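Provenance

Sequences were taken from public entries as deposited. Structures were produced by running a predictor on each sequence independently, with no templates supplied. The record for Flavoprotein from Streptomyces sanyensis is shown for reference.
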Amino acid sequence: MWCDGRMTRALHLLGAAAPPVLHMAGAVEDAQARGWDVCVGVTPTAAEWLGQGGVAELERVSGHPVRWEPRRPGEGDVWSAADVIAFAPVTANSLNAWALGLTPSWVVGAVVAGVGRRVPMVAMPCVNQVLAAHPQVDRSVAVLREAGVRVLYGEGGWVPNRPGEGRPQAFPWGFVLEVVDQEARPGQ
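Predicted structure for Flavoprotein:
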């Protein structure tokens, strides 16, 4: 895609309803500074958390409509195809659905399809210790890694905190974007 006379790369930045989703606008700006054209998608609950003002801010910053619902039959896509998809923050619910190939929301459907399309993907779960203790979380991380998704979880990634002790404003968006840059196909 060409923008301002230079080639840009398309990043689909997707988020679920975990507190860091409320700080996505800064991540969009950081990604744009790295040369990405950013399209934002969120789960329906994350859209509700953001409210009209938060969604409008993400649309203003990204320059694209924020999506949380599927297109209707016959509607064209308002986004360009993704060069890389980043799903951050990912809740335990979305992580497990993705790994199982379930599509309870448009965002999870997009990453399930991304596996089939072999789009480079990065995921950073945002789960607390109580949710992370469920054995399906580790299974889901393993399944997604086997499918080629860079899951930033555990040592060197997201380490679950105790419930109520998270610091959503300190979510490592910069690290997510560094890995996105690494996952970009050569020439992007």
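The CA atoms of residues 20 and 167 lie 8 Å apart.
The domain at 2-68+81-183 is CATH 3.40.50.1950 (Rossmann fold).
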